[in-house]
Structure prediction request, 235 residues.
Amino acid sequence: MSAVCILTPVVIMAWPAFSAAVVAAAGSLGYQLAAEVHNQSPGVTQRQESGAVRLEIERSEVVTNQLGRDQRIAVSREGVTVTFSRDARGKASLCVTGNGQSADDLRALGEELSQAVVQQYVYQKLMDEMRTRGFNVVEEEVNEDRSIRLKVRHWEN
Amino acid sequence: MSGAEPLLTIKFMPQREFEITIGKTGEVELHLKGFKGKGCLETVKMFEQIVGEMKAQQATSEFYEPEELVQYRIDQRH
Prediction:
C-alpha cells in the first residue's frame, strides 16, 4: 500500500442526475416516489407546513440552464415526506414533513436520506469515471454499515 | 548476435490496485496499493478531481521507495 486518502465529496450535477440519485437512494431506504414537479407558475406560493424541517446538502450545486424553472422531487415513507429541490443559490435542499414525528426525528430522517443521495452520487460518478479511464472494478460489496467497498485494478502504460 | 544479448526485452509498469470505500455519508476512503515512489500522486489528484476535497492523506513507507519497473528478458539459446 502506498497511500491512504480521505476525500470529502463535492456534489455538482444537473437536475436529471440529481433526481436519479434521489430516486436510487430513496429506494434503498424504502421510500417511494411521491411526486416530481418540473414547472410551477410564477407567483404560486408553496404550501408551508408547520413542523417542517429544512436542510441543505453541503458542498452541493445543482446546475440547470432553465432559468426560473422550479424543480422538485418528493419521496415518502410511513407518513414522512421528503421534498428535494434546488434553492435560489443553486444548492440542493430538502424539506422533511411528517405527522407525529418530532423535529429531531424529522431532521435525522432527512440527514439519513440526504447522505444516501450523496453516497449514490459519488458511487455513480466514480463508476462512470473509472469505466471511462479503463479501470476494472473486480469486487464490489455493501457493508453492514451501508458503506460500499470497491476493489479496482488498472494496468499503467 | 552475441549470446549474452537478449533477443527481446519487454518493460512495462506493474498492475495498480485501489480499494475504495464510499462511506454512508458519501465520504471516500482511498487505499492505493502497488505504488512505489511518487507515481501515486497523479492518481490521488485524479480521484480528487472526481470526488472533491482532500480531507486527509497519509503516505506509507512504499511511497518513499524508488519507482519499480518490471522487466522480462527473453534469451535465444542454441
